[in-house]
Amino acid sequence: MNDPGTAEPISEIAADIEKNMPSGPNQDTEEIMNFLKPSRWWFASTGVPLIAGTFGPIASFFSICALVQPWRSTIPPGGTEAQGVDIKDPHWLIAVNAISLVFALIANGALLLNMARRLALHIAQPIIIVGWFMSGFMLIGLVAAASARSTGFRPNPPEAHALTQAFYYAIGAAGLYCIVAGLMIFTVVGAVKGHYEKEFTLTTAQRTLMLQTIGFLMYLLLGALVFKSIEKWKYLDAVFWADFTLLTIGLGAPLTPKTALGQALLFPYAIAGILSIGLVIGSVRSLVLQRGKEKMAARFLEKQREKTVRSIDTEKNTIKVSWFKKYHFQEKADTMSEPRRREQEFLLMRKIEEQAENHQRWIALLVSTSATLALWLVGAAVFYVTEQFDQKWTYFQALYFSFTSLTTIGYGDYEPVSNSGKPFFVLWTIIAVPTLTVLISHMGDTIIRGFTDAVIWAGTVTILPGESRAHESLQRVFSSIFRGLKVNPKEFAGTNQPPGFLPREDNDGDAPEEEAEKGDPHHVMRNQILDRFAEHIADNEVDKNKSRSSSLDSTDSNNMDPDARDTFNYVYVLTRELVIVMTHLTESPGKKYDYQDWAFFLKLLGQDEADASLHRNPNSKSDLSRAHELGKADDGEETRVWSWMGLRSPLMARVSESQWIADRLSKKLEQELDRIRNGRKRDGPVPVTYADILKKVKQEDGKENGTRKSTSSHAELDKVNNQKEKKHQ
């Protein structure tokens, strides 16, 4: 579909540029609040400038086409309006048409200067709005004068004369000018009411799309001018030819290069043009599928979070994540230990993320499908009307032509020949072809992915059963079907979740005290954190030829200050973990950490998941006054209580989990190094002290020694018994 695979490189380049560009003091807060506020104001602040910057140049492109050719023609006997002979326009029409184009060019110039950051928005915006409105109103006046019989603009007899393509290009330009100028007023109203900053700036990707659109349109017009001179076509026919050529629709005769020079120039012109439209489509995909996806995902996540929190039923002990997923919890939150409650919140937030992501993907598919169908059906209706007089098309024939053009198949058996059909075809294809590309990408995220999974599943239950046998796979399928929508308690197997918000199978009988301690989340979490610290420190402190406890004892007997040792180990672990997390930044999709990882990182940052004083219950509704705290958790600057299902949750942040953790680790490391350099004392102990690690290691070594001694005793006993048996034989 004319996409040379440029969406991902463009997105990466734009992201790198935006990271190195200074942002305004309120820009981050404004972007954070975009998805918390009603979507119409997000559309006004972000979508409208993008639409205006893209369709404004298209309107100017149509204005140029309306000026370069007379608006009237005489139809030869037995001919069609496409074969008409042009009649020179009156001077007043040419003058007003030219003035309209000047206003439009001034408005577009202000738009370009604003994109280049050479003209402030509060100055550029009035120029853009007034310029486009003036151009639109002038063209509307000209169209009305040319259409009225009383003005004498159209000579008699009416059936022997026709309005040319330039007249219909003027109609398209007038409509586009008024639409984009009206949308810009909507943006101004939102800024005046304080829904967003008046001095907002577009992203690099948005400005890139605008500049690429302008470049493609200029390339199309210049190419049409060259081929018009070579092939002796009318200029607007050459524009029509350049459009279906560069969009790879290829309608064919009669507009094909006949001269050797024209055929030779087609090679470089088509290649460069296809690459140009490919860049435009790549930018559209980058904005809609990636930037738009991020905005939509954040909005859907917040809505799903609010809905889930409101669905908690304390009487029935249920919580509803979606229409078909309702979880029962056997233990109320106020009776759970803090680590139990926090882990359940985390797992629920993961379910909310999954549900919001699925919802967002299908909504995006629905929107792009609706847009494509609307363009197809409405386009067919317009072509049915425009080609009714000359070609007697039925609606089905118009539908067939619209489909082959929309999908860039372009058989060439049908094509518009009327003066009204060709300008509409140019506008329609510029909008419809990129829209279909976006639809195909959305289908890849949903339907095609589902089809691929279905094929893999079919293989596992037939000829490619994989690790399990075919009848076992079928048995699992039928059991899942008959189980219906009932929640499987083992759905969260593999995590050490206790009873709480999420379901869990009940154990028969009382577990021994030692086993209960092992299953306690606080005990498990503490041991995992100590083990992870010990792994890092062991590489630096422990003698490989000794046990870990004896080696640590020997190094601990040195005259090193305990606080200095703890600080050294803490900085060492921070550095090593930061290096590991940095390797996750390039993963796509971004890495998602489990609860044990998050508990370790938060402990490393000085936040204890077992400390209830640092936590709170989630709010069921967004508080716009706290929008700047989105995803910040307890950032260390001031103590903030937060919930995994709340607005401050790190899972609600606008950056990936790896980026969030890397930023916090680097900030904490910088603070520690700055404190050491300036000789300041620590306000409190490090998150994990050397004594804690030594105690844990000694316990493990003691258990290993006991196991080793027991194993050795059993081996000696077996050896003696074997000797006795041989002697007896």
Structure description:
- This is Voltage-gated potassium channel.
- It comes from Microthyrium microscopicum.
- There is one protein chain.
- The protein has 729 residues and is mostly helical.
- Among the domains are: 38-194, Butyryl-CoA Dehydrogenase, subunit A, domain 3 (Up-down Bundle), CATH 1.20.140; 560-688, no CATH class.
- It has helices spanning 7-19, 27-34, 39-67, 91-115, 121-147, 165-192, 204-231, 235-246, 260-310, 338-386, 388-391, 395-406, 421-445, 447-460, 470-483, 513-519, 521-541, 548-556, 562-584, 595-604, 657-678, 690-728; strands at residues 72-74, 85-87, 161-163, 318-322, 325-328.
- The strands form two sheets. The protein has a three-stranded antiparallel sheet.
- α3 (39-67) packs parallel to α7 (204-231).
- 34% of the residues are buried.
- Mean pLDDT is 76; it is low at 4-35, 480-518, 542-549 and 708-717.
**CATH top level class name of the domain at 38-194:** Mainly Alpha
Question: What percentage of amino acids are in beta strands?
Answer: under 5%
Q: What is the 3D form? A: elongated
Helix content: 55-70%
Protein name: Voltage-gated potassium channel
Organism: Microthyrium microscopicum
Transmembrane segments: 41-71, 92-113, 119-145, 166-189, 209-227, 239-255, 267-289, 362-383, 395-412, 424-444
Region (Disordered): 490-524, 540-561, 613-632, 695-729
